[in-house]
Specification:
The protein has 257 residues and is an alpha/beta fold. Helix content is 40%, strand content 24%. Strands 6-7-8-3-9-10 form a 6-stranded mixed β-sheet, with helices on both faces. A 4-stranded antiparallel β-sheet has the order 2-1-4-5, with helices on one face. The radius of gyration is 19 Å and the shape is globular.
Length: 257
């Protein structure tokens, strides 16, 4: 057992007969941003779903603040302080922006605190204040991502799980969203576990990273070190070596297809 805020040990998760996660172990410390990189189908989303209780692991443990939460239902996981922003946002399209935020705070009973956190979300994302009475389904993709993150913040998370926050967004919006992610982490000491295909922005945002391939962790390390690795540059950042040396390495070590 470690002193981590989140300690995931050897989890194996299935969709029926299909194994999605194969012995994954990872840690997130309090106040840390950790990223999980991997190609489509590598199992990144399944890792987050297992942590948040959407999926139950067949084997292994998910330990949060020293307590085994491996088979708790999602609402109990949320009450413990883990809030999940899923891929695709999954906002409530027929509810207003404000009503979506209140859904994020449904476990809370501190009315004054809820009001303060609503204002905090509007401070992070002023566009939401402008649209607080508008139905969420009418928002742009970027605004829906802002709302999904804000709804999770209304649960007062100790750990925020973010699944592909850049998906479908323009480069400018990606920079804005990740700037807010860094602010949330820095200003409120919220730990973040980030799944992201945009490896460049993920590695520049996070402190520590894991690389997932076909359900297994195949590399891990400090993000400043990972971003210097030749295989990461080649397969995630599009920076291949040229000439005979590059060709030999390409044939010898092709981790991601």
């Amino acid at each position: 057992m470690t002193g981590s805020l989140l300690h995931v040990s050897g989890i194996e998760t299935f969709y029926g007969p299909i194994q999605a996660i194969r012995g994954v172990s990872l840690d997130v410390d309090a106040g840390q941003i950790v990223t999980v990189l991997g190609a489509n189908g590598a199992g990144k989303t399944s890792v987050l779903r297992t942590i948040s209780g959407v999926l139950d692991p067949e084997r292994g443990q998910v330990v949060f603040e020293g307590q085994d939460i491996s088979r708790l239902p999602p609402d109990q996981v949320m009450r413990r302080g883990i809030c999940h922003v899923p891929e695709g946002r999954e906002i409530f399209p027929f509810l207003t922006v404000r009503e979506n935020l209140m859904m994020g705070a449904y476990t809370r009973h501190d009315r004054d605190g809820v009001a303060r956190d609503t204002e905090l979300c509007f401070d992070y994302f002023p566009r939401l204040r402008e649209r607080e009475g508008q139905r969420a389904g009418l928002l742009s993709g970027g605004e829906q991502q802002m709302l999904a993150i804000s709804r999770a913040l209304m649960g007062k998370p100790k750990l925020l799980l973010l699944d592909e926050p850049s998906l479908g967004l323009s480069p400018l919006l990606v920079q804005q969203i990740f700037g807010i992610i860094r602010r949330i982490n820095r200003e409120h000491n919220v730990a973040i576990l980030l799944v992201e295909q945009n490896a460049r922005v993920a590695l520049k945002t996070a402190d520590f990273g894991y690389v997932l391939e076909v359900g297994r962790i195949v590399a891990s390390g400090d993000c400043k070190a990972l971003i210097q690795r030749t295989d990461i540059k080649e397969f995630y950042l599009g920076q291949k070596e040229t000439g005979a040396r590059g060709a030999r390495r390409w044939k010898k070590k092709r981790l991601w297809n």
